[in-house]
Specification:
Elements lengths: L1 H11 L5 H25 L9 H25 L3 H12 L3 H13 L4 H25 L8 H9 L2 H15 L5 H12 L1 H5 L9
Length: 202
């Protein structure tokens, strides 16, 4: 809330324009968030990894929500193209921007690794199910697998998570001279992204 309030104040005081804030958000998403995701997973210990029950709960909960929306929204919304937009707009969330700060605030820094791994799973599912929902209600209703996979591979958040998991699994440790800047860059992500404006769907 403090970050959001600061962003709103800077815009209203004209200390930073909306275009600058949007450019900052874009830079944060593409260049800073990957460091945060990498750092959260890289610095974890084995006991900090999410349990299978937690992962199953999140995945099943998301699929149940999407199934409910796929059944309910067409009964309420008449225009076919709008149905997919509304469905994906309801279940997709800014999980990274709000999930990580809330997790750390309630459970401490060690819990960030749990959320970091869940981000990789849930953001992938958000993107896949979002595309599926949009395409099902589009003319033809055909989901193109190639562009979908390409989008996942190019997602900066997933790239950071995947690199962190690789280093964690192989036990690779960065030199201290590099580990410090990586951690510092990752810490910039929540303040850089928390402002009232447009942002990529996370």
């Amino acid at each position: 809330m403090c970050y959001l309030a600061m962003g709103a104040f800077l815009v209203r005081a004209k200390a930073a324009g909306t275009e600058f804030m949007q450019a900052l958000n874009k830079f944060t998403f593409r260049a800073i968030f990957p460091f945060m995701m990498f750092s959260n997973v890289y610095s974890a210990s084995p006991e900090d990894m999410p349990s299978g029950r937690l992962i199953l709960f999140c995945v099943v909960g998301l699929f149940a929500l999407v199934a409910l929306l796929m059944a309910a929204v067409p009964r309420i919304v008449r225009e076919n193209p709008r149905r997919g937009v509304i469905i994906q707009g309801i279940f997709r969330s800014n999980f990274v921007i709000y999930g990580l700060p809330l997790t750390i605030g309630v459970y401490g820094n060690r819990a960030a690794s749990v959320t970091g791994v869940l981000v990789m799973i849930m953001v992938s599912l958000f993107n896949i199910l979002g595309v599926v929902a949009l395409e099902i209600f589009r003319e033809g209703g055909r989901v193109r697998i190639g562009p979908l996979l390409k989008g996942l591979v190019k997602n900066p958040l997933l790239q950071g998570c995947a690199a962190g998991l690789l280093f964690f699994a192989l036990g690779i440790r960065l030199p201290k001279a590099i580990e410090g800047p990586v951690t510092s860059l990752g810490a910039m992500a929540p303040p850089g992204a928390d402002y009232p404006g447009r942002r990529p769907a996370l």
